[in-house]
Amino acid sequence: MIILLTIGYERTSDEIVDYFLFHKKDFIRINCDNLKDSDFFSFNYKLNENATTMKIDNVEINLDAKKVIWNRRISKRTNIDRFIDKKFDFDNLRLFSHFVFKEWEAFLKIFVNSLSKNTFWFDYPFVKEDKIDVLLLAKNNGLTIPETIISNSHAEINSNYITKPLSQTVGFKHGNMFYSTYTTIVKKVKHKFLPSLFQKKIDKRYEVRTFYLDGECYSMAIFSQSDKQTAVDFRQYNYKKPNRTVPYKLPNDVEDSLRGLMKDMNLKTGSIDIIKGKDDKYYFLEVNPVGQFGMTSKPCNYNLEKKVFEKLIEYEQNF
Questions:
Q1: What is the topology classification, in CATH, of domain 131-146+202-300?
Q2: What torsion do the CA atoms of 59, 64, 70, 72 make, to the nearest 10 degrees?
Q3: Phi/psi of residue 187, nearest 5 degrees
Q4: Distance (Å, rounded) from C-alpha 17 to C-alpha 22?
Q5: How many CA atoms, within 13 angstroms, populate the side-chain half-sphere of residue 100?
Q6: Which one-letter DSSP state was computed for residue 121?
């Protein structure tokens, strides 16, 4: 049994589903954002008996069967204010939103663990380390990382540094506009501030996005330096004049170090961000276990969606 654990309207998942349909291979797709719909999802876990029953769209899942599960994405950012009848003030809405998020996160772990019996995970959703842990693992595996400081004072911090979130990027909606947190050059620093992450600014030749798939590295060079808008963070996309991107081959020793890192993180797949500096060093930045890989697959003709499909079939046959 192959299960695709994803969300609705997720392009990469849709394209992999197309391969299953074309090759007439059986699969079950679970859109985790639909689990809040009791007409779609039925779940009963009796702790005393250690027994779980689960139905997806009125079809019971045989939890004792051998399963290969591709974890694409299990959560989706949603605003909860449309689900509540009364208007909350800002502080109470913030607290209530945090409470609901934590409750749902706790349930998702129970849900995932219920699926885990006789399961080969590709990959297990709750194994990723924090950003700082990953940087230390990368360093231990021989990868070069930027000079990194976590500080709450300006003593060492100046315009030779960039800053980014300590954890995950987040987006904010205001009216019809959407604002996201990006990597930013430090321009002005207060004397004291909350502990924040800073890294020495790398003089870049270009950026490299690598999709890692079960030991293989599929890389793409991104010439973000040619555009002021994308020079610091290529995710500040210029849709009118996109960055030039080309297939790329990392040095063998860098790929070997990435394999060691991914093994330590117990990951078979992930999107990896690297900077090639003008000093000819490769600087590791981060791993996103569920990162988008369509942006690498299509410009470089890697056909990664097909390769993921083939891996799932291979895992099922060998499990």
A1: D-amino Acid Aminotransferase; Chain A, domain 1 (3.30.470)
A2: 60
A3: -115, -45
A4: 9
A5: 14
A6: E
* Structure token digits, residue 99: 């409470």
Q: What are residue 50's DSSP bridge partners?
A: none
Write out the H or E segment, with its range, that includes residue 122. Answer: strand 119-122
Q: What angle do CA 201, 203, 207 make, to 5 degrees?
A: 95
Q: Are 23 and 306 contacting, i.e. CB atoms less than 8 angstroms apart?
A: no
Is residue 116 pLDDT above 90, yes or no?
yes
> What is the end-to-end Cα distance of the chain in Å, rounded?
10
Distance CA 140, CA 136 (A): 6
Half-sphere exposure of 94 (CA within 13 A, CB side): 3
pLDDT band at 99 (very low <50, low <70, confident <90, very high): confident
pLDDT for the residue 176? 75
- DSSP reduced 3-state for 205: strand
The owner of tokens 């987040």 is 170
**Cα–Cα distance, 181 to 117 (Å, whole number):** 38
Token pair for residue 123?
Answer: 């990959």
- Mapped onto helix, strand or coil, the DSSP state of residue 131 is helix
- Counting every residue, how long is the chain? 319
Task: Please tell me the pTM assigned to this model.
Answer: 0.88
Instruction: Using alpha carbons, list the distances in angstroms from residue 163 to 202, 225, 227, 271, 280.
Output: 12, 18, 20, 21, 23
Distance of CA 97 to the CA centre of its chain: 22
Q: Which two tokens stand for residue 88?
A: 């909350």
- pLDDT tens digit string along 215-261? 999 999 998 776 566 666 666 666 666 667 899 999 999 999 999 99
- The arrangement of strands across the sheet holding 41-46 comes to 41-46, 51-56, 59-60
Domains of the chain by residue range: 2-122, 131-146+202-300, 153-200
Nearest to 272 by CA among 280, 262, 263: 262
